[in-house]
Every structure is written in C-alpha cells, then in structure tokens.
Amino acid sequence: MCSSDLARGASPGTYPLVATYSGDDADQGSVSDPLTVTVDRGASSLTLTSSANPSRAAAGVTFTATVAAIAPATGTPQGNVRFTITANGGGTVACKGGSDVTLSGGTASCTVAVGELAAANSPYTVTAMYPMGVGYTSSSSSLVQTVEPLSAT
Questions:
Q1: Does pTM top 0.85 for this prediction?
Q2: Is 143 helix (H, G, I), strand (E, B) or coil?
C-alpha cells in the first residue's frame, strides 16, 4: 500500500506517477511503468452580502464576497473578485478603488461611497464574480440592493 500527496497544492494538469521499490536483502528493487494522474481544479463557491439592505439614499454600502473551496477541494482561493453594480435604469456604479478587488483570506469587499446609490435608480443588481483562479473553478453570486429615499423632516 502506498499513498501520495500529489494533489495537495498541485496546479491543475497531468503528472506522471512512478512507484519505485529500492529492494531489500531478499528482493531486488524495481520501478513501475508510469501512470498518468490528472489533477482537476477544485470547485469554489461565492457568497455575497450587503452591509445594509435596504439602505438609505445618503448612506454608503459595503458589499462583501466570500470565496471558499467546496470539498473535496481544500485551501483558500486567491486572486480577484469583480463587482458589478447595475442600477434599475441600466447605469453602473463603481466601487471605491475599482471593480476588481483582491481576495484576502478568501474575502473581498467593495465599498460604494455615500450618495452613489440613489433611491430613484433602485433597485440595484449587485454581482460578484470570481474568475477561474489558480486551482479553482469560477463562481458568482448576485443580490438585489434596495435604496430607500431619505425621510422628509
């Protein structure tokens, strides 16, 4: 019986696997014929949340994407998440710092400045997309962000 840790941390692709027996006092050593092992990308999932939903017209909002490996895949996906925020009328709103946000510990956040989300353009469709990263498949998630008007005083 033998085992291998080849798939742990290996990039997707094909790898040759050869078993070697060094021999002992009674038996001569030998080498097996090569066997091709394929390492596939692990599946990922993306969960998208809003810091306030519904939010008020004069408030900033932070959207958080959490990307995780789906078993049997292990580890923490790395790379970027792309956030797209589309208004009901078709216009778009950008995150502070841009739409592509680097994952840190599997999490990426997009903050929308105060006043960028208007009640007149509500609801907004917010989508976060993790492209196929090193070792993981792509995943995405969307939510509907409602913006309520300010109350009359």
A1: no
A2: strand
Longest dimension (CA), the chain: 94
β-bridge partners, 65:
48, 108
Q: Give the CA count within 13 Å in the CB-facing half-sphere of 124.
A: 30
CA 93 to CA 83: how far, in whole Å? Answer: 10
Nearest to 86 by CA among 44, 136, 131, 142: 142
pLDDT in tens, 94-152: 999 999 999 999 999 999 999 899 999 999 999 999 998 778 999 999 999 999 998 75
Backbone angles phi, psi at 37, to 5 degrees: -110, 130
Instruction: Check residue 19 and report its DSSP letter.
Output: -
C-alpha 67: how far from chain center: 4
- Residue carrying the six token digits 């492209």: 131
